[in-house]
Request: fold
Amino acid sequence: MAGSTFLDSSELVLNMGPQHPSTHGVLRVILKLDGEKVIGTECVIGYLHRGVEKIGENRTYVQFAPYVDRMDYVAAVSNGLGYCLAVEKLLSVEAPPRAQVTRVILTELNRIASHLLWLGTHALDIGAITPLFYTLREREEVLKIFEKYCGARLTTHAFRIGGLQYELYDGFEEDVAKFCDMFLPKVDEYEELLTDNRIWVERLKGVGILTAEQCKAYGVTGPVLRAAGVAWDLRKAQPYSGYEQYDFDIPIRQNGDTFDRYIVRMEEMRQSVRIIRQALERIEPGPIMAKVPKVIKPPVGEVYVSIEAPKGELGYFIVSDGSTQPYRVRVRPPSFVNLQALDQMCRGALVADVVAIIGTIDIVLGEVDR
Reply:
């Protein structure tokens, strides 16, 4: 914690969380305050620790796949994609074209669902109740598609190592196209409610600034990095699942404040719809699984594969010793890495701003603690 360990009479140490609704899970933030002003913060994590990586070392490659869905439970599909791509790289296997296109559709729908939950809860933290009802209404339509496809709404286990778990249901394309048509005007509706709203702008503009250099120093990725003016998106920088074939833009802003992070995510939802529409035109008949051995025993080696999850770079590091179980599993979750920057963003802000800043990083404690 910054400053001397001896508190001046005007300084105060305050616990925010782990039961505080605005910490988005069981996060405890120790705030060092001078009146209302934040002098320093310290995050205390680990309340939700489940030892996911160690579990991975004691399960077969296939058995571990459903566990990763439980880390960032708001973006379970992205977690599953990253893990499957990592094991497929170890096996030197590539999913067939039909599976790749479906993966793109489902992960982009998942990005929209994740951003919708972020927007609703972020607005709720700041005092706007209406957007939560709106965003959950639209998110429900995405969850219905997930449920029809694989039976789950939240911890959506959609992929298999080598391809897909299930063939697409009848009417999948129609449902997704219908959602895209319905959803785009809704984003404009959210913006009408918030973007020029005087209270919203005053609460977000100039709050929690993180410059591009600071982002790079902390290893921050995702919308937080792009709001600082860095056009870094793994779908463009290191394409996977055929993303190089899609035409879309990387939304960036320059100020690196809470307002810019909001704008970036709003634009990302529009770009996701753009990608989904292109993917729908690419769906062709064919197999949904590559030729994968019944018992998965990758050759000895190690691999690191990262994808652009809704919150930033999600990476899987797997070491194989040639057996049916990974020798080492390590995950690089975006929420965990991005949370490092909280102290930098909060210094000099007010206690009320801390709530806005935690919301704008968009953390899920399931992947922070793992």
Observations:
- The two ends are 24 Å apart (CA to CA).
- Residues 51-339 form a domain with the Cytochrome-c3 Hydrogenase; chain B fold (CATH 1.10.645.10).
- Strands lie at 11-16, 28-34, 37-44, 159-160, 163-164, 301-309, 312-320, 328-332.
- Residues 97-126 form the longest helix (30 residues).
